[in-house]
Structure formats: structure tokens, C-alpha cells
């Protein structure tokens, strides 16, 4: 740990003590927002009025030859200003002579003596937002930067927020005022940013919160386009590339010889030159059919059936890791892709489970992406501090030393218990900071990708925070969380925040037996997920009660009910409180049935990942809710 980071941690520790002390005196953890409603200008600088009482001296100016997304950016700005104020601001091109005050959007002929935009430093996605005299300039990379800049301006200076695809805050005021001294520049820390959940699949939400991957939504050129994969982005070998359905029957030698001595359909023999040639042909065909894609995934299947033939074993032994055979195979494909003139396409492969450790000899080609997967991680403690993560830190450091382009596949839910608590809010920001500080330039935050069927816990909160952190891992996460909670849950949001803090503080506890660790398949019965004594359970009950009492309207109540399911699910799995066989011998089964009926009423049809994850129609209320799924044979 460097000196600056140590100072930051010490400062944060004493700040937390100060907060704890002030809380004991004032009785409030999160002070109320003191900003006046519709006060759009920042404290520094003089105000600049864009719209006043339904009229304006401003026009929005875009380039006559603007990129498709810059045209969208200008029109979006006009549309949201109309929603805020009711005033329809004209959008004109820079072919129009300057005659008054302007909001300049994107690349125009207005650049020159008054201001310049350094697009070489901003790249495709960075942006400048600044005032120049009486004008406002929002401009950046022509691909997505200007469009992102418009949404950043709306968020930072006009208090607009896209919390979910349905919960969007657009303040209402006939007068729109900003600071006359804005100078705001941002560039993303990561070139590739993707998460799943529910709202990130929505186009408007994705643009507003700057998700650029192409797995869960298609963004047209007018929407800025995607950064992503040709075809599938995971487990492509034997499933699209050297497809087992096509080749296995006639050429079983293309496929892995597993430990039982049989050929398997779901991994390849990576040292067979014929296998390689088929893979090269398939990859090139994929690129030709996806001319706008930047990445092709060449990734192992989701199992341990790697090849143990004599040639593969010899390479693995020479390299000191199973990743040796994979990387040599992927490098050969990358060379073929480059030889065909596809200089802008990269080949992506996993450092995952048996390939997680870097090889000793082979180095990834410059057009190869290593996607490092954290599936074995503890998610109670930050990676850079967790004693269990020492091997993972070593492996990441080894890849960092030899890899030009390093991505991470991270995890943010419990796949065996989608409806249970996954108290990782204390680690997600620190982990993302750790990634970017170790040369990671792309992150996929996999969460509950089936959340539309199992929207319990804090699906939408988690998606929002992940989206914000993927753009900038150094945001004020407390502020972002509090803003979301207030908008989503209403007047009782502070109780929800206290509940989140309570559960976050009590995951992965330290016992006399050592540190406990929460993983992505840990059962609710394990103290590592969450350990609370009876007083703490009663306190959490009171927090949910307070939030419900302060809720206003059916939407807030429904959101609270959905999120509270995780709390009730945990209690039922632990057989505590109203689900205790000892405290409520005559009621605990009825309380299980009530929980089940509420799950069904709220539209939840899945409780875990995979084919066995669907909620059963015939639950056994003498058993805990983690058993209420259909067993598919």
C-alpha cells in the first residue's frame, strides 16, 4: 500500500469515528439535504440564466456535419429542457450565423479563438462541459462523448437522475439557472463497462448511466453505438467456435480428452492443429458477419474438463499452468486475425478457474484481452485486504505484468439464493478501485442476470451504483446511494440505509475460529453471509416497519415489499424471529406460507440460478425457502 492510500484510509477511519460520535448526539446518520429546490447553479460563480419564465435568449447549436450521436445529444438536451421548463429551445446547425447566446453541443465551427476541445485526450467517450462567456459548451468524443456530456450536464447541474428505467427525476421549473463558471471534464476509467440486472437493459438508462457493452442492449449509431463482442461473450469454445454439434461426431479428436479417458463435447484439445484451424475459420467468419464488433470471445466452457492428452499436459507442464495451452491457442488465433487485416479487433479469453494463473513463458499478443474472473472471491471483504484473496492478488499481478489489455469479470449476487441478502456494499467500490489501479481497463459486473424473474433484495440499487462506479470508481458512493434510496423508497429511505449499513457491517464476521467469508454460492444458514443477534434482528425489523409507515403511494410500498423479501428470506432460512420453531411453534409454518404467497404476488418466479431455479408450485412449508424450487431432472 502506498503512502497516499495509507493516509486516505487513516483519514477515513477518523472521519468514521467523528460520524459515529456526531450520530450519538444528533440521532441522525444522514443529515437532510439543505439545498433549495430547483437551485440549479453551483455555489461558486455568478448565476447564468438559460431559461426564464418560459422564454430564453439561447439556441442550441450543433454541427451541420455532426455525428449521429451528436445530433441525438442536441435533440435530447432540447427535449429535457422542455420537460423541465416547458420551453422549446430551438436547435440549429453551425451554418447559422451566431447572433446571440448559444448552448453549443458537439463539434462545430464555433471552436477556435474562444475555446478548443482536446478530443485526442478525451477519446471516444470523454467530454468537456464549460461556460465560455455567455455560452455553454458541451462537447467531447464524437462517438459517445458529447452524448454522455449532455446527460452529465443534466445530472450534475440540472439535478436530473435516471435511477431506474422507470424512476427518472426531471425537476420542474420555468426558470433554469446554472453557474456562470462551469469547467467540468470527465474521461472514463474503463473502456468497457457492463452490468446486467433489470434497468441496465434499457437503452435510455444505459446511455444516461454510461453503460457501453452490447450484451444486454443494442445501441444504434444515433445512440452512440456499443463497445463489445461479436456474437456471444462467454463460453464460446465448443459453442459457436468449433461447435460440438457440428464436429464432435466425425472429429472427436478436436475435443478434450478428460480425466476419465473419454472425449468430452464441452472443451477442446487446444494442441491439435486441426482444432486450431477450425477455430481460426470460425473466428474470421464471426468477424465478417459482425463488421462493427471490437472483440471476439474465445473462452473455455464452464467446467473443469480440460484436456489431459500428452501434448496438452506437456505444454501445461512447460508453462506451469493450464493457461499455457489456452494462451498459445488464443495467440495463434489473434495472429491469424491480424494477418487478415483486422487491426481493430481483439481476441478475448478467460483467466478463469483452472486458467486463472498466468503461464510462465507465453505472453499475450497485443491484440489479446485477458479477462480475469473473480469467481472464487470472498465478497465480504475487499480483495486488496481479504486474507483469503492472496492467491488471487498474486495471479492478477502476474497477468498485469505480461498483459497489455486486462479485463475483469466480477460477481455481485448469490447465485444459489437470488432472494437472499448479499451484503457486498462495503466492497464493490474498493474492489473497482483496486482493479483500475492494477491496469484493468474493462469490467463486467455480473449480477442477477435473471432479476426480472427474481427482483428481491436491492437489484435496482445495485445496478445503479455499479453503473456509476464503472464510469468513475472514485465517486461519492454514499451520496449516490442516498439519492437513489430517497427517490426509490420515499420518506423512509434513511431506515433502509441504516438496514444496509447494519447488514454490511455484519457480513464476513471475525470469530475465534478466524475470519468468515461470503462467496457467491454461500447458503443463508452460514454466518459468513450475515450474523445478527436477537437485538439486532429486532432493530432491523423496526427499520423496515418505519420505512413502510412513511411510504407514500403504491409504487413505494411495492418497492419496499420487494426489497424486504430478502430480509424475510434470510430469517426464514435461519429459522429466526417469526420463523423460529421455538418462539412460534404454532405459527412458523404459516409465516413460511405467507412469505411464499407474497413472493408469488410480487411476481417473483425464480429463487436461484439455472434450470433448477424456478419457484415451485408445491412448496413444503416445513422446509426453509431455499428449497422452494423445481427440481428438473
Explain what the structure shows:
The protein has 633 residues and is α/β, with parallel strands linked by helices. Among the domains are: 1-31; 47-186, Chitobiase, domain 2 (2-Layer Sandwich), CATH 3.30.379; 231-279 and 296-348, no CATH class; 493-627, no CATH class. The protein is 36% helix and 14% strand. The chain is built from 17 helices and 20 strands. It has helices spanning 3-26, 68-85, 119-122, 145-158, 203-208, 244-247, 273-289, 310-319, 323-339, 390-402, 428-436, 459-471, 477-489, 493-505, 534-550, 554-574, 588-601; strands at 47-51, 58-62, 91-93, 101-105, 127-132, 135-140, 161-162, 168-169, 176-179, 183-186, 192-195, 255-257, 263-268, 295-297, 346-351, 368-373, 405-411, 440-446, 510-511, 514-515. The strands form 6 sheets. The protein has a 6-stranded mixed beta sheet with strand order 3-2-4-6-5-10. Helix 12 runs antiparallel to helix 13 (477-489). The chain starts with a helix and ends in a 32-residue tail after the last helix. The relative contact order is 0.07.
Largest sheet: 6 strands, mixed
Structural class: alpha/beta
How far apart are the termini? Answer: 50 Å
Question: Architecture of the domain at 47-186, according to CATH?
Answer: 2-Layer Sandwich
Superfamily (CATH H level) name of the domain at 47-186: Chitobiase/beta-hexosaminidase domain 2-like
Q: Class of the domain at 47-186, according to the CATH hierarchy?
A: Alpha Beta
In one word, what is the shape? Answer: globular
CATH topology group of the domain at 47-186: Chitobiase, domain 2
Count the DSSP helices: 17
What portion of the residues fall into strands of 2 or more residues?
Answer: 5-15%
Helix content: 25-40%
Mean pLDDT: 92
Write out the strand line-up for the largest beta sheet, numbering strands in chain order.
Answer: 3-2-4-6-5-10
**Spans with pLDDT under 50 lasting ≥5 residues?**
1-43
Overall number of strands: 20
Instruction: Give the oligomeric state.
Output: single chain
The value of Rg in angstroms is 27 Å
Amino acid at each position: 500500500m502506498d503512502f497516499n492510500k495509507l493516509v486516505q484510509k487513516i483519514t477515513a477511519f477518523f472521519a468514521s469515528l467523528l460520524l459515529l460520535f456526531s450520530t450519538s448526539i444528533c440521532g441522525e446518520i444522514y443529515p437532510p439535504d439543505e439545498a433549495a429546490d430547483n437551485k440549479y447553479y453551483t455555489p461558486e460563480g455568478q448565476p447564468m440564466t438559460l431559461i426564464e419564465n418560459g422564454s430564453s435568449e439561447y439556441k442550441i447549436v450543433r454541427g451541420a456535419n455532426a455525428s449521429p450521436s451528436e445530433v441525438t445529444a442536441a435533440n435530447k438536451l432540447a427535449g429535457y429542457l422542455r420537460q423541465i421548463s416547458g420551453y422549446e429551445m430551438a436547435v440549429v446547425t453551425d451554418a447559422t450565423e451566431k447572433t446571440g447566446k448559444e448552448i453549443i453541443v458537439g463539434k462545430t465551427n464555433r471552436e477556435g479563438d474562444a475555446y478548443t476541445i482536446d478530443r485526442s485526450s478525451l477519446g471516444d467517450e470523454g467530454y468537456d462541459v464549460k461556460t465560455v462567456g455567455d455560452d455553454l459548451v458541451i462537447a467531447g468524443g464524437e462517438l459517445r462523448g458529447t452524448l454522455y456530456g449532455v446527460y452529465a450536464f443534466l445530472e450534475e447541474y440540472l439535478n436530473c437522475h435516471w435511477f431506474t428505467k422507470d424512476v427518472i427525476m426531471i425537476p420542474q421549473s420555468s426558470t433554469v439557472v446554472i453557474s456562470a463558471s462551469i469547467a467540468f471534464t470527465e474521461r472514463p476509467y474503463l473502456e468497457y463497462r457492463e452490468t446486467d440486472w433489470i434497468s441496465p437493459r434499457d437503452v435510455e438508462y444505459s446511455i444516461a448511466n454510461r453503460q457501453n457493452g452490447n450484451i444486454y442492449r443494442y445501441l444504434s449509431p444515433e445512440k452512440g453505438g456499443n463497445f463489445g463482442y461479436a456474437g456471444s461473450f462467454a463460453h464460446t469454445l465448443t459453442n459457436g467456435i468449433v461447435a460440438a454439434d457440428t464436429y464432435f461426431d466425425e472429429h472427436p479428436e478436436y475435443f478434450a480428452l478428460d480425466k476419465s479417458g473419454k472425449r468430452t463435447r464441452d472443451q477442446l484439445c487446444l494442441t491439435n492443429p486441426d482444432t486450431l484451424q477450425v477455430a481460426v475459420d470460425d473466428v474470421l467468419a464471426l468477424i465478417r458477419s459482425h463488421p462493427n464488433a471490437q472483440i471476439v470471445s474465445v473462452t473455455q466452457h464452464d467446467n473443469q474438463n480440460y484436456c489431459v492428452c500428452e501434448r496438452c499436459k506437456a505444454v501445461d507442464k512447460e508453462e506451469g499452468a493450464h493457461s499455457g495451452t489456452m494462451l498459445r491457442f488464443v495467440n495463434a488465433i489473434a495472429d491469424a486475425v491480424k494477418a487478415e487485416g483486422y487491426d481493430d479487433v481483439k481476441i478475448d479469453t478467460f483467466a478463469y478457474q483452472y486458467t486463472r494463473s498466468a503461464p510462465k513463458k507465453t505472453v499475450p499478443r497485443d491484440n489479446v484481452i485477458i479477462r480475469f474472473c473473480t469467481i472464487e472471491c470472498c465478497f465480504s471483504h475487499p480483495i486488496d485486504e481479504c486474507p483469503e484473496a492472496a492467491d488471487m492478488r498474486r495471479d492478477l499481478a502476474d497477468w498485469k505484468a505480461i498483459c497489455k489489455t486486462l479485463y475483469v469479470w466480477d460477481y455481485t449476487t448469490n447465485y444459489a439464493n437470488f432472494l437472499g441478502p448479499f451484503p457486498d456494499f462495503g466492497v464493490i467500490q474498493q474492489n473497482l478501485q483496486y482493479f483500475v489501479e492494477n491496469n484493468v481497463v474493462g469490467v463486467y459486473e455480473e449480477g442477477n442476470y435473471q432479476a426480472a424473474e427474481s427482483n428481491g433484495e436491492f437489484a435496482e440499487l445495485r445496478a445503479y451504483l455499479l453503473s456509476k462506479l464503472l464510469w468513475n470508481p472514485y465517486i461519492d458512493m454514499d451520496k449516490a446511494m442516498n439519492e437513489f434510496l430517497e427517490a426509490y423508497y420515499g420518506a423512509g429511505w434513511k431506515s433502509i440505509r441504516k438496514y444496509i449499513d447494519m447488514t454490511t457491517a455484519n457480513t464476513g464476521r471475525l470469530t475465534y475460529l478466524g475470519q468468515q467469508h461470503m462467496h457467491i454460492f454461500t447458503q443463508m444458514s452460514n454466518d459468513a453471509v450475515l450474523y445478527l443477534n436477537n437485538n439486532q434482528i429486532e432493530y432491523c425489523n423496526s427499520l423496515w416497519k418505519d420505512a413502510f409507515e412513511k411510504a407514500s403511494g403504491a409504487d413505494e410500498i411495492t418497492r419496499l415489499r420487494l426489497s424486504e423479501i430478502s430480509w424475510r428470506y434470510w430469517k426464514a432460512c435461519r429459522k429466526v424471529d417469526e420463523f423460529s420453531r421455538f418462539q412460534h411453534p404454532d405459527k412458523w409454518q404459516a409465516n413460511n406460507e405467507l412469505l411464499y404467497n407474497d413472493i408469488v404476488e410480487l411476481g417473483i418466479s425464480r429463487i436461484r440460478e439455472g434450470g433448477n431455479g424456478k419457484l415451485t408450485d408445491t412448496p413444503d412449508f416445513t422446509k426453509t425457502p431455499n428449497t422452494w424450487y423445481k427440481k428438473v431432472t
